[in-house]
Amino acid sequence: MATDWRPTASIDTLRERARLLARVRGFFAERNVLEVETPVLGHGGSTDVHLASLSLAATTPAGRERLWLQTSPEFHMKRLLAAGSGPIFQLARSFRDGEVGSRHNIEFTMLEWYRPGFSLDELIEETAALILALLARAPGPLRRRRYRELFREMLGLDPFGIELDELRRVAGEHGDLDMQGEPRDGCLDLLMSLVIEPELGREGLDVVVDYPASQAALARRHRDPEDGAWVASRFEIYAQGLELANGYDELTDADEQRRRFAEDNAARHRLGLPEVDVDQRLLAAIEHGMPAGCGVALGLDRLIQLALKRQSVAEVMAFATPNC
Amino acid sequence: MANYSTNEFKGGLKVMLDGDPCSIVENELVKPGKGQAFSRVKLRNLITGRVWERTFKSGESLEGADVMDLEMEYLYSDGDMWHFMKTDGSFEQYAVEKKALGDTAKWLKEQVAYTVTLWNDNAISVTPPNFIELEVVETDPGLKGDTAQGGSKPATLSSGAVVRVPLFINQGEVLKIDTRSGEYVSRA
Protein biosynthesis as a keyword (chain B) (predicted)? Predict the structure, then answer.
């Protein structure tokens, strides 16, 4: 069989893609958000237990060093914020090992932006405006959905209150697999992926808020007004069952951030996953003082896929990983 | 056999599931952006032909299945078993049970090559070629001058299959049939 050298996106699709990229830049130019470019390589990587970072060995002025390919441009961009950049955005190549499928590609384009002084609500509004600017047709109304309410509505259970054994049973039943010994968040993730996600964004944009505190990552936490349970100050936007964007009210407490990185690495150790070098420069920047505000990361390939009505991200990328 | 982990699952990989050999049809990664990954896998049970959808935790593994697809020519049936011979020049023969033969029974013709799927060296299924040429052994007489118009009638073929054919087809003619849809394609 002849070697398949052809692009996974047609040339016409790439023209459409270029037009949409220009629109993204126009959107931020109008709002006086500065475009920046930061390195894809860093001395620290993402410790997130569920992200597999790629690393490589490079010869630098310091000798032979291990450098990490970013899973998102978050760390470098936060260092710019701490240095007084003001609002910034970036179209950043990001890398996540093992993630290949109709909605994943190991190397992909993350559209990430930061808004010092913005509330989470203001950023939700701006993210929805960006999505609408790219989709040819308005997808319908924007609905705010609380994480907890979604589980109550679609599964009849309170994700925060339910006993772990019961949660494992329900998750195992829905996925038809054995969830004994699985952590709480793993069970919630399975139910989110299999039961809730496919129903999200069917008639518009669904914004999920108030995630479990354990899923805060680099976001602040706040009290749920209902019963005072801690929740993550985080949102995700879904359209047509596709997760498009993930936003945080950014954590600006260096000690808390250091503790979360250490917890991640401890969890990695327990699970037999490789530990990741903690980004000390990011911690130093937060220590110096990062302005309070919000930031969001949006999977641009997925948004382009929706805008152009394609079935997979590969169809809007010049060369998807299997063909690169 | 080797074990395969979820990140090695790809279309066509043969694995054991619930004691039956299966072929992976599709493997889709599902994962909330910041959450745990799972694999949503479609597998075809190679014995029943049924497609199963299963979810696996990332990193779970399945045992590989010793499954091979071989090209074999159909020889004859002794009533209990159907006999095929490898086309690689070895003259090695395999006997196939009625259950494994399944629907292919109605597309059998001597000296035609079929794909025989072996599991642990036993035949578990037989796939006919996409197109096969078979003789009409019984049908209503052909209608002259009816070549342009539509309309069809049943015809019994030499293999026993009954297919819809155009009205102008006569007994004794050899037809090209698509075995996947069971439809008439043309005169051979």
Answer: yes
Domain end point (choices B41, B63, B85): B63
What is the per-residue pLDDT across A141-193, written as a single tens digit (0 to 9) for each? 899 999 999 999 999 999 999 999 999 999 999 988 899 989 999 999 999 99
Enumerate domains of chain A plus CATH numbers.
11-139+201-323 (3.30.930.10)
User: Tokens representing B19?
Assistant: 């004691």
CA A240 to CA A242: how far, in whole Å? Answer: 5
The sign of the torsion formed by the CA atoms of A309, A315, B53, A167 equals negative
Domain extent, residue B104, equals 67-127
CB contact under 8 A, B31 and A102: no
Residues from A contacting B (CB-CB < 8 Å) are 48, 50-51, 98-104, 175-177, 182, 185-186, 188-190, 192-194, 197, 215, 217, 236, 243, 246
Predicted confidence (pLDDT) per residue in B111-126, tens digit: 999 999 999 999 999 9
Instruction: Using alpha carbons, list the distances in angstroms from residue A224 to A48, A221, A251, A306, B154.
Output: 24, 9, 18, 33, 70
Chain A residues inside the 8 Å CB shell of B38: 175, 189-190, 193-194
Q: Is the pTM of this model over 0.90?
A: no
Quote the tokens at residue A114: 């930061």
Number of alpha carbons in the 13 Å side-chain half-sphere of residue B173: 19
Q: Whose CA is closest to A220, among A235, A236, A208, A232?
A: A232
Interface predicted TM-score (ipTM) of this complex, two decimals: 0.78
* Coil vs helix vs strand at A188: helix
